[in-house]
Amino acid sequence: MIEHRHKSILAAAIGFLLVAAIAGITFSRPLFQKKETDKKNESALIKRTNEPAESKHELTADDLADKIAKKEKLSIIDIRDKESFNKEHLLDSRNYPLEEISYKFPAINKDWNYVLIGTDGLSSRAAAEIFAANSVKNVLYLQGGFPEWKARNKSTISFGDPNSFLDQAKVNYLTSDQAKELMEKESIFIFIDLRSPEKYAESRIKGAANVFIENLESRRNEIPLGKKIILYDNNGLWAFQAAVRMFDMGFSNVFCLADGFDTWIERKYPTEK
């Protein structure tokens, strides 16, 4: 009887261990499958970012960067929404949101060279097909869209976010007192008024030039090199944003008037009309 009881207990123990082992394999299988899937996705991503363009109409990020560096004649069209474009985009690109493209064709030179950039490769390709359907002869699209350009660490122009530590690191600051002192001691500097032409005409820092902030990118070649550049607006926000954009455009020795033109006036520092 005792021997029979021991055998029963042993059989029950073995059965319990088998059930536990099967359960462990069953529950761990999704984890192993997830890890395997993650490895496959990672390998696919690495392969995708290093593979050449698959179509004669498709450009890799490196291909486009090379064309830009060689100053080839092309027009870069960003088909993302306006908010995304304003936040960050390629230098000299224009924003034609995908849903508005059809309205742009009457003004488009159909013999020009175009590169289209979307939120991903599919939207870029779709836009290229629309261009081709409207008899635009030379149209290319960016493989992977704007995210791929960013992932490849290519240059962009940022809007200028005061809450971004990265953007803050791009900016040098001056107070009105420091700018006035610089004005008295040095001659190799220029003030740039970022306000509208109307506000500039009403009153400005003595000797300042006017480049409206919305035109800063298109008028960058008018800004002299080799001088300290002091950017200002009424309260300092636009000056900060413009300083970020100028850093992204490759300018150095740029300063933001942190307390703005309002403080300059309060201090009764030199102005003109």
* Strands in their spatial order, largest beta sheet: 1-6-5-2-4
Order of helices and strands: HEHEHEEHEHEHEHEHEHEEEHEHE
Average pLDDT rating: 84
CATH-defined topology of the largest domain: Oxidized Rhodanese, domain 1
Could you tell me the number of beta strands? 14
CATH class of the largest domain: Alpha Beta
Structure characterization notes:
- It is a single chain.
- The protein has 273 residues and is α/β, with parallel strands linked by helices.
- The protein folds into 3 domains: 1-50; 58-155, Rhodanese-like domain (Oxidized Rhodanese, domain 1, 3-Layer(aba) Sandwich), CATH 3.40.250.10; 165-272, Rhodanese-like domain (Oxidized Rhodanese, domain 1).
- It has 11 helices and 14 strands.
- The chain has helices at residues 2-50, 61-69, 82-87, 101-104, 121-133, 145-151, 165-168, 176-185, 197-202, 237-248, 260-266, and strands spanning 58-59, 75-78, 88-89, 94-95, 113-117, 138-142, 157-158, 172-174, 189-193, 204-205, 209-210, 228-232, 254-257, 271-272.
- Helix 5 (121-133) links the parallel strand 5 (113-117) and strand 6 (138-142).
- Residues 1-51 have low confidence and may be disordered.
